[in-house]
Amino acid sequence: MSVTPPMTMMDFFRKSEGIWFSQRAVHNFAAVADESGESNLIVQVLDRQDPSVLEIASKEGIDPASVAGGAKFSWQGNLKDGEPNPNYAAILVDVPNPDNPRYGKFFRNQGYVEGIPVVGIYSFAEDGVLTIDTEYEKNQGQERCWFVTDDFRVRVSTVKLMNGVNLMAYCSERRCILPSQLDEMIEKNRQRALTT
Questions:
Q1: Deepest in the core among 5, 15, 85, 98, taking most CB within 10 A?
Q2: Any bridge partners for residue 167, and if so which?
Q3: What pTM value is reported for the model?
């Protein structure tokens, strides 16, 4: 099964838009047992004029003309209904390199590792693997993400403290099918069955 990988951050956001079932395994070198968990990751693409994108650009002193857009990422337990808790959400603002949009920075209103605004440096390899390097006050994070198919992707990350790697995580994520999409698929199959 072939997949066309995104090669810019905005293409990555667009390809990621929707709800993903995320299964993760975390190895913390300071702990005895590994951790695992499941959650839903909800991705919403934001255009460059979205008020939340403009607010972050203003706070960070970014020229709005250099902003390509952004995305809102939210996490919630996969069995929970309703709107996600805003405390488990982040907004990313994409500022691509003007000479090569495969490279750039994103500004995030709060980080994964430390709950403070952070800047990430990103690059897309020839094969579409996205690498993000983030400097926190006391930690360094690196994440790699790639699409295996349009509806399945993998994320691998490390967090380094001053004395070395402290945390490693692996996530596999499958796109969730919404009820409206399922109804559409059922109807298409029903129509196909009627014509054969």
A1: 15
A2: 28, 159
A3: 0.85
